[in-house]
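Re-run with default settings, no changes from the original entry. Doing this only to confirm the output is reproducible before filing.
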Amino acid sequence: MKKTLQNIYLSLIIFLLYAPIVTLVVLSFNNSKTRAKWGGFTGKWYISLFQNEQIMSALYTTLVIALLSALIATLIGTAAAIGIQGMKRKSRTIAMGITNIPMLNADIVTGISLMLLFIAVGSGLKYLGINFSLGFATVLIAHITFNIPYVILSVMPKLKQTKRSTYEAALDLGASPIYAFFKVVFPDILPGVFSGFLLAFTMSLDDFVITHFTKGPGVDTLSTKIYSEVRKGIKPEMYALSTLLFVSVLILLILINVSPNKKGSTDKTLNVKKSQKAVHFVLRKVVPAIMAVVVIAGGIFYSSKEDLSGTNQVIVYNWGEYLDPEVITLFEKETGINVVYEEFETNEIMYPKVQSGAIAYDVVCPSDYMIQRMIENDLLAELNFDNIPNVKNIGQEYFKQSRQFDSENKYSVPYCWGTVGILYNKTMVDEPIDSWSVLWDEKYKDSILMQDSVRDAFGVALKYLGYSLNSTDLDELQAAKNLLIEQKPLVQAYVIDQVRDKMIGNEAALGVIYSGEALYCQQENPNLDYVIPKEGSNLWIDSWVIPKNAENKEHAEEFINFLCRPDIAKMNFEYITYSIPNSAGQALIEDDYMRNSTIAFPDIDQLKNCETFNFLGDENEALYNELWREVKSK
C-alpha cells in the first residue's frame, strides 16, 4: 500500500511538471494558430521560426547577453569571493550580508533602480558630449550586476573547504602567488565556479523584469518579445522555439549523466568509456568553442549596428504585433532610412518611458486618451502635414472623431481603429443580441467573459446605465460599480487575450472583446458573431504621433507618410486584422468578406452612440482604479 501511494505521488508530481511541456510540444505541431482548435499536424511553425527575423534576433540577443553576463559575473564574483574570504570574521559577515541583499530584493525594485541610475548617468554624460542611452549595454551591465551575488554564493562554500596551509606550503616551496592559486586553490573551487556560471547563465536567460526596465529600442530578449505579443496572442513559432530549447536541455542532461555500467563484459565497459570520452570532449571542447563563437559573433553583430545617435534612422515605438515586419523592410529599402523598432504592451507602460526622455523616440502609436494626456503635458510636436501628403487617404470621419482627443488635429494621424462589443456564440445564445443587458442575464451564468480592464469594464456598465463612459460623477461611478458587483457571480472569468481562445473553443457563450479580435475569432469559428450594443460603446483610435524630443522629425514624418500609402495600409490590415481608417487602402482589400465586414468596417449608424475614451486626470484615474479594486475584491 505504501509503495502504491509513493508511486501515485511520484506520478502526480511528474504529471504536474511535464504536462505543460507536453502541451507546448503538441501545440508546436498544431496547424491552427489558436490553442483552442486542433487544425491538424504540421511542422510549418519550425520552418517559420527560422525565417522570423524578429524571433531569431531576440533568441540571439538572449544567448549573447546570458553568456557575456555569466562569464563576466563569474570572473568578478569569484574574485570578490576570494577577497571576502580573506577578510576578518566580522567584516566577512557584513560583506556577505551586503552581497545577499540584491538576491532578496524584489526584481522590480532592482530594475527600476538600475533604470533610474542609467538615465541619471546618461544625462550627466550628455553634458560632456557623450551619448549614453538605454540599450544593449545597459541590459548587459544590469545582468552582470544581479548575477554577481549568485556567483559569490556558489564559490564561497568551496573556498571555506580549501586549506590555507596547502596554499602557504606552495608559496614556501617557491611558487608565485598566481601560480600557487591556479595549481592549489582553483582546482578545489572549480566546481563552485562552474555552478556559479551555470546559475548566472540560467538567471540571465530567464530574466524579464530587469531586462524590461533597462532595455532600449531595437533590443529584445525572448522574455520581452513574448510579453510584447500579449495583445495579439503568442505566436505558434514561440511554441516551436520552446520545444527546441527543451529538447536541447534534455539532450545535454542525458549526455552529462551518462555513466558506465559496472556490470557486464569488458567490451561493454570499453565501449561505455569511449562514449564517456566523446561526451567529455563535447562538453569540454565543443560546447565552450560554440559559446566563444556566439559571443564573438554577437560582439561583431552589435558593434556593426548603428547607435541611437545616428541621423539616418527613425526610432519607432509601437504596440506588440501591430505592424507587418515586411512594411519595415520595404520602408528601409525604398528610403535608405534604418528603422529601430521597439514594442510596448500598454499605454501606461509607454507613457513614462516617453515622459522621462530617457530615449528620444521619433514615432509613437498611443491610443486616443493617452494622446490627449501627452498633449496636455506638452510631450508632442506639431506635425508638418506638407511632409505627409498621403494623409489624404485617411477618411475625414476619422479626423473628426480624433478631435475628441486632438482638438485641432495638429498632433496625430489615425492608424487603426475599432470598437468594443459583444462576441457571442450563435449555438449557445437563443435570442438576438443588441444590448449590454445580456451580460446580466442569469441563464448565461458561468458563460460570460468580461474584459479585465478598469476603463473597459466600467465603460460597459456606464453605457448600459445610459451614462458617458468618460463620466467622473461619483454617483454614476458608484452605480456602475454596484452593477459590476451584481454581475460578478455570472462571470466565468475576467480576461484579456484569453477571450479569443475561449470563444473559439466554445468555452463561453458571450465575451466582451475588441472588434479586431472578434474578426479573427469569427474566421476561426463561424458560429461566432459580433455586435455593438445599441446603448453605445467605446470607439477607440490608435494614432501616430511625434514626441517633442524626437531627433529625427523629418524621417518620422516620412515614416508616417509611408504608412498612409493605400498598399501599405492594406498590408497592415491583412497582418493585424484591425480596422484601418485608410479609405483608399480599404478599397484594395481583395477578400470580399473582409472588405465588406461589418465587424471591421461597421455602418456609421452603428457608431452613433459610441465615444472615445478621454484622459480624466490623475485624480479621477485613481478613483476608477479604487472602485475597480472594490469590484474585484468582492
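The radius of gyration is 29 Å. The longest strand covers residues 413-425.
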